[in-house]
Structures are given as C-alpha cells and as structure tokens.
Amino acid sequence: MSAAMDTESTYSGYSHYSGHSKKTHRQGRDRHKSPRSKDGSRSEKSVTIQTPPAEPLLGNDASRAEEGQDDNWGETTTAITGTSEHSISQEDIARISKDLEDSVGLDCKRYLGLTVAAVLGLLVFLTPIAFILLPQILWRDDLEPCGTVCEGLFISVAFKLLILLIGTWALFFRQPKADLPRVFVFRALLLVLIFLFVFSYWLFYGVRILDSKDTNYQGIVQYAVSLVDALLFIHYLAIVLLELRQLQPMFTVKVVRSTDGESRYYSLGHLSIQRAALVVLENYYRDFTVYNPALLTASKSRATKHMAGLKVYNVDGPGNNASGQSRAMIAAAARRRDSSHNELYYEEADHERRVKKRRARLVVAVEEAFTHIKRLQAEEQQKAPGEMMDPREAAQAIFPSMARALQKYLRTTRQQQYHSMESILQHLSFCITNNMTPKAFLERYLNPGPTLQYDRDRWFSKQWTLVSEEAVTSGLQDGIVFVLKCLDFSLVVNVKKIPFIKLSEEFIDPKSHKFVLRLQSETSV
C-alpha cells in the first residue's frame, strides 16, 4: 500500500511537472508568436481608435516597445490611467505663454492709449486759457483796455469750457468694458483731428500774436472763444460718430453656440466687426443659458458604448489588411443603428421620468420648508426682540429639510457644479428677506437661467478670440461670418443685412363700406 502511495505521489508530481513544462512550452510558443498576436491586437486598435491619417498609430509604437520588453517589465513599470475632460500638451503650454505675453501687450496698449487721450484732453482745455493769459503775462502794459464786451467774452469762455468738460467726461471717460484687438477707428480719427486742430491754432497764435505782440486784447479773447466753439462742434461730431450712427438697425446677426446649437438673433447698426463681437458677447451673457458640458456627455457615452460593443477578430492571420475589418465594422454598426433609436427613446423617456420625480419631491420639500418658516415667523413675533432670528439663521434652520431633495434634483439635471451650498443659502436668505414664495425660490433651479445668474468664477471666460477673414476694424457687411472662441466652445456669428422694405399706400373710399339690405315681399305658405 505504501508502494502504491509512493507510486501515486510520484505520478501526481510527474503530472504537475508535465503540466508545468507544457505551460512553459506554451508560453515559449506564444512568445515566439508574439509578433503575430501583436499585429492582431494592433488591427483591433486601428478600428476602435480614430487617429489622423498623417500621424502614426499608437499601436505601432506600442508593439515595437513591447517586443523589446523583458519578463519583469511589470515589476519596474508604473502605469497611470484615468480620464480627463481637458488635456494639455507642449503646444498648449506655448500657446498659453503666448497669450500671457499678448495680455501684457494689451495692457500696455490700453494704458498708452489712455495716457495719450488724457494728455491731449488736458492740452485742449488749457489752450484757450493760455491764449487769454499769455498776453497778460508777457506784454500787459501794452495791451488795450478790455471793455464790457471783452469781459462778457470771459463769461462765455468759462461756461463753454464747463459744458465741454462735462460732455467730454460723459462721452470719453467711461469704465472700459473690454480690450479690443484693434483701435477704434473713429475715436482715433477724432483724436488726430483734435490734435491737428489745436496745433494749427497754436501755430497761428504764435506767428500772428506772440511774435507781433498784438495789443488788441479783445481780438485775442475773441480768438480763444472761436477755439472753444470749434471744440464744441468737434464734440458734437464725436457724439454722432460714436453714439448716434450705430443706433439705427441695419443688420441682423444669428449667434449659434457650437456645442449644443442654441441660437439667438440680434439687430445691429453700423459697427465694426470687433465692436459687433463685443455687443454679441454682452448679449450672450444675458440671453444664453449657462453652458453645461455635462449635458453633452450622454450622447458621447452612448456612442462610445455602441462602438465598444463591436469587436472584429482577425481569423486570416496578420497578412490580411484592415480594409476587410473596416467593412465588417461598418456593416455591424449599420445593423446596430437600426435599433439605436429605440435605445435613445427609452433612455430619454427614463431620464424625463426621473427628472419629473425628483422635481415633484423637491417642490414638496421646499413648500414644507417655507411653511415651517411661516410658523417660525409667527412664533418669533411673540418673543423678545433679542431672541428673533435673522434671515441667514432662518435659512440655515430650514435648509437641511430640503437639502437632500435639492441635491438629487441637481445631480439628475447635472447642475450641481453651478450651485454651491453657500450660494443656495444666500439665495434662500434673500427669498426669506423679501417674503418670496417657494415657486420664486425654485425658479433658479428648475429652469436653467442665463449665464450672469450664476457665480462669476464658474462661467466667466477671461479671454475670447475673434476669428474673422475680414479685418476686424472693417464694418459689417451682408454675408460676413466670424467666430468667437473661448476654452470650451465657440460662438458662430452670421451677419445678414436687413432688406429694403417698400410700402405703398392704398386709399379706401368711405362710401364703399355702404350696403343695401333687400327683403323678399313674398313668403312661402
């Protein structure tokens, strides 16, 4: 019996050794077949991963790298995996550094323009005063006495300069809304016109008055008054060019957001492309709903799931090309496409059902919380003034009763990234302070609002890029298309000219509205 046991143990050890040797032999054989298997895996990757045709596939480099790896590569290799919504490369880093340099250049350009405008404005206001004071300082004894008309001109110059100062402050000294890529052409032309105008007045004043030391002081004051009158007319011209010219609508622009296709229409007047882009951005933050990239991931995940369910196997060996696999992939995708609309329909119906369910729970929870606030207010009126709660404390007291329902609803509608707990508490305390209803409180969360409604740090894009085939300083024309790009999406703007409308008049004679009622005398018996 012991011999049998020894024989059995020997047989089991042999079988274990033979299995191990077979496994080792199989591994060695698979190692010799590794180029063939790599080609098969590479062909599968070439089907499922779409890469530009000009760039080499990742599988080629990976297969060459795996051929040179040893058996212990897993112990000395660190693999980092994960998903990211945005990626960055060396080109992106270089572009970001270039954008920073451009932003520094824009700041310098803006301050340089403000400095030039301020110096020129100071020169404009000091010039009439200098025209009047210089003769009094340089040759006062030789001047003719200033009569009543001359003294009246002093008052005229003072009030005209005051009016010009107020008008200039109202028109030019405003908080800048944006940094435009190019200068404003009309404003630059006005500055050049003012400089040439003041320079010509100074040139005439130096040649005809300073050199000759004119003694007619009333004529000198009249010369300063004419300068102030001309400056007032230039200010009127600036109002027409900068403000009134663009008020009449001449073009209709269609703004489309590239990611979800949301669009709006606006009417614009005679504007340059860069100023029209600024108007579009101002209206975008007010009219467009906030951009929510989480709503776009459903279709992407659905398409990825459909493509992941398709696999192509290479049964003919590595010598076969990938064209047959591509045809098989397209045929399989076509067969699955026939049933994909049913999946889409049921997914959307299930999502709408869950949203309605969460919405109903949220409405009930908020109504109960506001009812509790009313009871608290009735109780607080009976307490001492020192024991009453402020709106912030009341909001913190009722917020836990609605927090779970609100959190689930925001997650279902994918709005949780736009509403922090602090912002919800502030909105709740605001509604309590102003005695608003539960429906008014829920309006912000049930319906996606405009971009300005949310926290500035969550939606505000610090820099937009204007892409246009035409010069950005040129005016709007029929058929022009330009694009406003930011980090996550872009706005495509299509310009159409408002057609010429011809109305005609048709006169209707008042007598043509008279009618005659005819009655039959005979009746049937």
UniProtKB/TrEMBL annotation:
The keyword Cell membrane applies. Residues 1-86 are annotated as: Disordered. Residues 36-45 have a biased composition (Basic and acidic residues). It comes from the Eukaryota. One of its GO terms (cellular component) is plasma membrane. Keywords: Cell membrane, Membrane, Transmembrane, Transmembrane helix. Residues 19-35 have a biased composition (Basic residues). It is found in: Cell membrane. It is a multi-pass membrane protein. The keyword Membrane applies. Residues 74-86 have a biased composition (Polar residues). The chain crosses the membrane at residues 111-133, 153-172, 184-204, 224-244. Belongs to the Vang family. PANTHER family: VANG-LIKE PROTEIN. This is VANG1 protein. It comes from Mionectes macconnelli. The lineage of its organism: Eukaryota, Metazoa, Chordata, Craniata, Vertebrata. The gene is Vangl1.
